[in-house]
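Journal club prep, notes for RB
We'll compare a predicted complex against what the paper describes. Inputs for the 1,6-di-O-phosphono-beta-D-glucopyranose case:
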Amino acid sequence: MTLNAVVFDLDGVITDTAHLHFLAWRSVAQEIGITIDEAFNEQLKGISRMDSLLLILQHGGKAGTFDDKQRLALAGKKNEIYVQSLASLTQASLLPGIREVLADIRAANVKIGLASVSLNAPGILQALGIHKAFDFCADASRISCSKPDPEIFLAACAGLHVRPEEAIGIEDAAAGVEAINAAGMLSVGIGPGLNHAGLQLHSTRELTWKCLTDFWTSRTALIRN
Ligand code: B16
Ligand code: MG
């Protein structure tokens, strides 16, 4: 089978906004007497804004303390802080190797998609100057289930007009790798602890077109044999 598309996660794969999400949540959580650390933040990667808030409230034993309106206000406050911090993003904020791999995938005539559950994704791609690199970006506002549900990856494949079996997905979060696998795509995990990924890489520096094609060839050969 031919590789027809590569679908990228955004936060933690294309740029390191995961830390900015953490700082914004930590500040909001502190205001309501909840302490979160970087280890807890791992659970929030790939999880939508409202689902992240629910996890934080549960973590602090305050799941039943706030009504819907108050929860929306807390999520809104987090987003304000986060969006302010995005002003620091420039074209230099792309993670190492990403610009090169996007160019090489394009040169090979393979489609490029984005599967981020962030409602801020379009603005982030603009700030990074790479919005034109994508053939299709799944619209997070139309997604009802965040990762590990495969919905966002399936939406990206549908928008690219490829079947999931013809595509590789790239993620830095355990929930994201589960989502790719559940979609029926081949998964590449960037970073530690992603044992369920078909291919595990230490960093985006290793994410080259050669590495993707070698992975594809080895996995599709296994399926044939
Ligand atoms: P927003 P991804 C996810 O992006 C982040 O990993 C997650 O931490 C965040 O809560 C979510 O986007 C929603 O982001 O509040 O900007 O809509 O990893 O799917 O690219
Ligand atoms: Mg991510």
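Talking point for the session: The beta strands are 5-8, 111-114, 136-137, 167-171, 186-190, 199-201.
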